[in-house]
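Lecture 7, part B: from sequences to assemblies.

Below are the input chains for today's worked example.
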Amino acid sequence: MRPIEELVNHFKEKELALPIWFEGGAIKLIDQTKLPFEEEVCTITTISQLGEAISSMMIRGSGAIGICGAYGIFLAALNSKGSSKEVREAGELLKSTRPTAVNLMKTVDEMVAEAVGSGDELISRVEKKAVEILNRQLDFEYQLGAYGAELINDGDTVMTHCHSGAFGGAGYGGRAISVIRTAHEQGKNIHVYTCETRPYLQGARITALELKKFGIPHTLITDNMSGFCMSEGMIDKIVVGSDRVAANGDLANKVGTYMHALAAQAHNIPFYTATSSHTIDFNTRSGRDIEVEMRNATEVTTFKGIPTAPEGTHALYPSFDITPNGLITGIITEKGVISSPYETNLKKVIDKLTV
Ligand code: RI2
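Predicted structure of the full complex, as structure tokens:
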């Protein structure tokens, strides 16, 4: 059995909610557009299929699409019988699928850097790196979950946005749900308000599914209810995921995050992002330098193909927004919770272990 298949079996024994894995010579992934009503497993045998799965958001979540980079480059090495040229080409295709989450770019670059030599030697090097990255991503979730859980008190109501969870990461809880799940597993009595997150509904369809699976009490709200809930004193803390953290601490995350952060500041509610060193990008100076993915606006004017606006209505779909660092109370990482001034404090903590 290949090392990567041994790792997958080990992950499955840990009962992780894997969004993607390697089995029988192919990549398998859960089609997240079908959740929560179907857990359809798709078999991916080519890089173009994987690229389409990422672009169409069959698999999504910055941690999970980062992991696609690991599995994808390994698949390319296998399919090309160890051709460094074809592996490099596969890397460029994967990096072109979605521009905002930095994990994908970083992971692909790490994997392609191992694709030296040729044939079985190249395949073996690439597979070894994939195993290292997959283990690292899961360790991040346990570690950041533990640091973040220290911020959560017994009895807290925690709001989150989008889905920053197991299916969006390495299988324990992604970023935000790793914090929430760890606090719950420590016996803290917490309640989660999850925003539905239009138009893809990551919150209603996937976060609610995971919180139910983990036995964590939760309430679903629409995105435009967050201000009401905060003004009524229903929310004690907010924890969201992250697609890219700039060198100055500005945060790119699902659209709507910025709005929640503004309301949180108005109501003196602590606002945290859960991330990892792998999502902090020192090559991006500030949020102004982060490319926000603009997705097909038909996802706004229809739901599951049913029109929700008059024919021909013009719509807009920025998939992310930028929350300025001044609205962020703390950045939860696998090495602790980093506070402002982020420009200096991020480098102090992360420089030593930037991956
Ligand atoms: P982790 C999602 O974007 C959201 O922005 C969410 O916060 C993040 O990625 C989850 O990833 P999309 O891929 O923070 O659903 O859990 O568009 O890594």
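Note for the exam: The domain at 142-354 is CATH 3.40.50.10470 (Rossmann fold). Keep this in mind when comparing with the next example.
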